[in-house]
Structure formats: C-alpha cells, structure tokens
Amino acid sequence: MAGAVLALFGIHVWEIVNDLEDVGSGFPGTSDVVAAGSDALLRACGGLAALTLVAYLLAPKARETSAPISN
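Predicted structure:
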C-alpha cells in the first residue's frame, strides 16, 4: 500500500511538471498550476496514506522466537 502512495505521488508530480511546461516558467498562472496540482496530490495521496498507516498500526505484532539463532 505504501508503494501505491508513492506511485500516486510520482504521477501527480509528473502531471504538475507537464502542466508547468505547457504554461511556461515566469508567466502568471504558474503558481495556480502548482497550487492546483498540490491540492490534487494531497487529496489523492492523503486518504491512501492514512489507510496504509491504519493498516500498519492494526497489524498483529510478530512473534518473538525463544530459540537463539545458531551459526
């Protein structure tokens, strides 16, 4: 699930960069492109990241083995 969050994050960053290339740097509106892209990024990744964290925190703990590891 963490990999899905990273994939979504990368896709949104790629979309922001492509939108900035279309607008061109230094033109008015670049801040609007970054703001809209960041908003979409946080909306898409935030819920999935929270679900990933909840699944991690609710997962059962690993059992400890009492036998020592021998070489």
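Summary: The chain has one domain: 2-56.
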